[in-house]
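Narrative of accomplishments. A recurring question from our advisory board has been how the design workflow behaves on a single, concrete structure rather than in aggregate. To address it, we present the structure tokens for one chain from the evaluation set, followed by the sequence designed for it. No filtering or post-editing was applied between the two.
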């Protein structure tokens, strides 16, 4: 089916529909391509290969109740369980959660899995000690400020929220791991989402952009205190290309931003 690409304003419901369709359809290809890098029970934050095992952005894990937002196959949740935590993986896509169930059967480690939209979390107030997300949901929702408020609500006071997204500065470049991806072509200040539509005009993929300042403001407005914004450098000897993430670009500018925030005690 022919495809059109553009920047078009898109609300929560349309974004949600497009994401569900996209991730249901793409779940197999995503895990064929990235499954070995992500592992069945490993916590990889980003294509640069930062692991929670080394970074320890979430702090103490044993006995903690942890929500993984946009969990995909929930490998992070499985790794967290291995560290003594209780983990719940939430995702919009039944296709992605199907891969989570298969990985749970393969490993014998079973995080609770919930199908829901990150803009409306189906949990009570203060239900979790920690929340995390590795590129799950936040880049795909029309109202990330609402996700920040929802995560704030379901965290207990003193709880931590750590999420990784595409670094906002990547918005200005073409989605290309090679030389073409080194040329700035688009306004950093254009918040209209990147939208792919099929030949009937139905949105099939939607990705939303926020500037670095927007992300900070949304966290602060929800009530969080920001502890760090990690911009992983491309590691020496790491030559794996993941979509637009490549050694060529990674040596020059960041591809990922990891926001580390806390709900005040
Ligand atoms: C790039 S994948 C990342 C999956 C996983 N965290 C990983 O590291 O492999 C993005 C995930 O976010 C989920 N997602 C997208 N929009 C969402 C929403 N509004 N609410 C919950 N999950 C969503 C997708 O279904 C998909 O599983």
């Amino acid at each position: 089916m022919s495809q059109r690409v553009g920047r078009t304003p898109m609300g929560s419901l349309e974004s949600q529909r497009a994401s569900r369709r996209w991730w249901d359809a793409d779940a197999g290809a995503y895990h064929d391509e990235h499954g070995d890098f992500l592992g069945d029970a490993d916590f990889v934050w980003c294509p640069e290969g930062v692991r929670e095992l080394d970074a320890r952005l979430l702090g103490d894990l044993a006995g903690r109740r942890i929500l993984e937002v946009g969990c995909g196959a929930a490998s992070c949740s499985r790794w967290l369980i291995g560290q003594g935590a209780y983990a719940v993986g939430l995702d919009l896509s039944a296709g992605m959660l199907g891969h989570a169930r298969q990985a749970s059967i393969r490993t014998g480690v079973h995080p609770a899995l919930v199908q829901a939209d990150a803009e409306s979390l189906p949990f009570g107030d203060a239900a979790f000690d920690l929340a995390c997300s590795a590129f799950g949901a936040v880049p795909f929702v029309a109202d990330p400020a609402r996700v920040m408020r929802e995560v704030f609500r379901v965290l207990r006071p003193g709880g931590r929220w750590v999420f990784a997204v595409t670094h906002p500065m990547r918005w200005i470049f073409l989605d290309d791991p090679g030389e073409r991806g080194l040329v700035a072509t688009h306004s950093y200040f254009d918040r209209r989402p990147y939208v792919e539509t099929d030949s009937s005009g139905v949105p099939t993929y939607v990705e939303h952009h926020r500037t670095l300042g927007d992300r900070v403001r949304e966290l602060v407005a929800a009530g969080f205190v920001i502890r760090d914004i990690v911009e992983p450098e491309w590691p020496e000897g790491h030559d794996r290309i993941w979509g637009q993430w490549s050694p060529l670009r990674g040596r020059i500018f960041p591809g990922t931003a990891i926001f580390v925030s806390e709900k005040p005690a």
